[in-house]
Write a structure and sequence with these properties.
The protein is α/β, with parallel strands linked by helices. It is 41% helix and 15% strand. It is built from 12 helices and 9 strands. It has helices spanning 3-10, 12-20, 23-26, 44-58, 91-101, 119-123, 142-154, 159-169, 175-178, 191-206, 242-249, 260-277; strands spanning 37-41, 64-68, 80-84, 108-113, 126-129, 182-187, 210-214, 230-235, 252-254. Helix 2 packs antiparallel against helix 8 (159-169), helix 4 (44-58) packs parallel to helix 7 (142-154) and helix 8 (159-169) packs parallel to helix 12. The longest helix is centred in the last third of the chain and has 18 residues, at 260-277.
Length: 297
C-alpha cells in the first residue's frame, strides 16, 4: 500500500532543484516586482498560495493575497492572478479564471499545473507546466512543494540548501511520533500555509485528527485540547514561551532546524506512516479523487 506516495515524497529534493531550474523561462510569466497579485487554489494548492503570498510580501515585492478559488473576489484591481492546480481541471479555478478574463481591463492570469494540455492551460493567459512533478497518488506532495520551490526561487531563495534539508528529512526517525493520538501544527508568516498543509495530509491520508493555526493564536483557545499523547508541531522557530506553555500541558512539542519546506516532508512521511498503521492506503484516501470536477464544470 501507499507505494506511489512514498516514491513521490522521496523524489522531492530532486524535483525542487528541477523546479528551480525552470526559473529562466517561468520567471517571465510570474509576477513582476510591484504588481498587486492574487494567488488562488483549492485544498493543498490554496495552502501553497498562502505560503507564497506571505513570502512575496515579506520580500517587499508587492501586495499579495491568497484565496480559496471559490472565495476569491473578482472585482479588485489586481495586476496578476496566479492559479495553482495540479490537474488543471478543478472547477472552481477554471470558473474564476473565466470570470476574471471577462472583466473589462482584466488582470494578467498565470496557471501553474502538472498537466500539459489541461483546460487551465487554455483558459489562463500564461501557463507553467511542472509535469515532472505530477503524481499517481491522489494526495498531493511533490507537485505542491515543487511549485512552492519554483516560487521561492523566483523570490530569490537558494533551493540548494533547502533540497539538502529535504534529504535529511527523508531520514528523520518517526517512531516517537506515530503513537500520537492527535496533532496540531502551527506556523508564522509563510509557514502558516505549511501548517495547514501538514494537517490536511494527516486528515486525508490517515483519517487522523489534525488541526492548524497561526502560532501566536494557538494560546487563544486551541491549546485547550493539548494533553499527554498529543503533538504540537511548530513550522519554523516558535514564538517565545510557546514550547514551555505546551510542555505544561503534557503534550509533546515538535520543532526543527530544517527549512520549513523540508519539515513538511517529515509531516508527509508521518501521514503515510499513520495511514499504514491504521491499515489504510495513502495512495487512495476515502471520498477523494485526483481533481474535483463539479457537475456542469
Amino acid at each position: 500500500m501507499s507505494e506511489h506516495v512514498r516514491a513521490e515524497i522521496a523524489s522531492q529534493p530532486a524535483c525542487w532543484i528541477r523546479a528551480a531550474g525552470l526559473l529562466e523561462d517561468a520567471g517571465r510569466a510570474l509576477p513582476a516586482p510591484g504588481e498587486r497579485v492574487a494567488v488562488v487554489g483549492c485544498g493543498t494548492s490554496w495552502f501553497v498560495a498562502m505560503a507564497y503570498a506571505a513570502l512575496r510580501e515579506r520580500a517587499g515585492l508587492g501586495e499579495t493575497d491568497a484565496f480559496a478559488a471559490s472565495e476569491a473576489p473578482t472585482g479588485r484591481g489586481y495586476d496578476t492572478v496566479v492559479a495553482i492546480t495540479r490537474s488543471g481541471t478543478t472547477t472552481e479555478v477554471l470558473d474564476l479564471l473565466a470570470t476574471v478574463a471577462a472583466r473589462p481591463g482584466a488582470p494578467r492570469t498565470v496557471a501553474l499545473t502538472a498537466t500539459a494540455g489541461s483546460p487551465v492551460v487554455e483558459v489562463a493567459g500564461h501557463s507553467i507546466v511542472l509535469d515532472f512533478a505530477d503524481e499517481r497518488a491522489v494526495v498531493q506532495t511533490r507537485f505542491a512543494t515543487s511549485t512552492l520551490a519554483l516560487l521561492r526561487a523566483h523570490l530569490g531563495d537558494d533551493l540548494g540548501p533547502v533540497a539538502a534539508d529535504a534529504e535529511k528529512a527523508l531520514a528523520e526517525p518517526l517512531d516517537h511520533l506515530v503513537g500520537a493520538e492527535q496533532a496540531t501544527f502551527v506556523g508564522r508568516g509563510w509557514t502558516v500555509g505549511l501548517a495547514h498543509e501538514a494537517a490536511l495530509k494527516l486528515r486525508e491520508s490517515a483519517q487522523f485528527w489534525a488541526e492548524a493555526y497561526p502560532a501566536m493564536d494557538y494560546r487563544h483557545g486551541p491549546i485547550a485540547i493539548a494533553q499527554p499523547g498529543r503533538l504540537v508541531w511548530s513550522f519554523g522557530p516558535p514564538p517565545d514561551g510557546l514550547a514551555d506553555d505546551v510542555a505544561a500541558t503534557g503534550a509533546t512539542f515538535v520543532t526543527s532546524e530544517l527549512d520549513p519546506l523540508a519539515q513538511l516532508v517529515v509531516a508527509q512521511r508521518l501521514a503515510v506512516a499513520l495511514a499504514e498503521a491504521r491499515g489504510l492506503d495513502a495512495d487512495r484516501p476515502r471520498h477523494l479523487t485526483r481533481s474535483v470536477v463539479l457537475p456542469g464544470g
